[in-house]
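notes to self, project folder thing:

trying the whole complex as one job this time. last attempt i did each chain seperately and stitching them together was a nightmare. two parts in total, labels are on each line so i dont mix them up again. if this works i'll redo the older ones the same way
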Amino acid sequence: MTDLPRPDVRLNERGHRCPMPVIAVARAAKSAGSGTVIAVACTDPGAASDIPAWCDMRGVDFLGSQVEADGAITYLVRTR
Amino acid sequence: MSAPAPPAGFLDAASGQPLNPASREAWSVAADAGWADPARLYREGRRAALLADSAREAVASCIGARPDEVSLVAEGALPAVIRAWLASCGPSPRLVCSAVEHSTVLAEADDLQARGGRASIIGVDRTGRVDAAAFAEALPGAALAVLQAANHEVGTRQPLHEVAAASADAGVPLLIDASVTLGREDAPQGWAILVGRASTWGGPPGVGVVAVRRQWHAPPLDLASAGLPAALAAARGLEWANEHRGADAEQARAWTDLIRARVIADVPDVALLGSDDRVGYLTALSCLFVDGEALVLGLDRAGYAISSGSSCVSDLRRPSHVLSAMGVLTQGNVRISLPFGVTQDTVDGFITAFADVVANVRAMLEADDLTQETPDD
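result (full assembly):
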């Protein structure tokens, strides 16, 4: 996807298993202001379901995901 | 005969449960009187053959089939039936199934495609219910359709009535996988092939039921038979379950509803999974910021046995394909399935232990400051 916005915060959760990537993005979102775009790079396959599910539960916008050169997947979210 | 009390705290009936009293008794009868080879013509062989016939007759009458349509087989028959059926359907057959079938069905669909066949895998909504219209649309020209009666991980019932009608219209044989429901609910209708699993009704583990309607002229399915004690135990157990499950089913439904209501009220950040139209004895939920493995082990230490579809609990380190297909939270997942004869003490104790264990895991992961009340909508 080419039209994803530039993130304000980048998290590297490669190698961390569920639920750690979601905990990391939730912690970053807690201290971020409204409208902050957070990118989290994950290798855990659970993140594909769990990052969007967390967005749903918190009313955070899920913006999309992209595959990185090393095979990790970066998910982008924006706080409200 | 009432159900033997299952061990206190045991809430994983969908993985196996104690033998019901009729199964236990039939097992011992068949062990005494049915040890001979039923193909032999001497008296002991004829006696074993009579017992095997009576097992088929009992199952047939429970599921609305003819005895010669029924086989009692070793577990694992579901993929074997699909494979044998498709092998008789020409060079490039197409299979239609939902995305939340048992993993062995989806593995068969993958193998089929690798062999040059085709598979139409129909998606589900967030409750795990297959899109009946999309399923119906995929039917014309298919060699076989497979649909579960209810999902094994979240309990959601599938739209069998609509799919069976559409299959009949399209002239496509429908295999109903009733592994989760047979013996706990009325047998489904509208099948060309029906598959069930004896442990679901407190029959012996490792035994399945396969029934094929004669008018479909099934190819030789070549399924491994269950041994006689197990087959007779499964058959008598199914009769027992059909006769006794009424009150138990209502109670189980009330208790799984209670678990859902209490967990939502007591534990922050929980996602209830599945729909209200679910098999009554089974329910599932997921918890944000919780490691599924720590949850299973913590509940085990507290005396409660449940299963989990979270990735950290799977050998492949992937979340369950069912939860992924539903697009729901997979972390901190538990499936609760009530055995026959479960007690209120076990249900109440589980609810209390669950809240404690979730809180402990979140504290251990230093995520307890991130939680919010679960909205009750």
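what i see at first glance: Chain A has one domain: 9-78.
need to look closer tmrw
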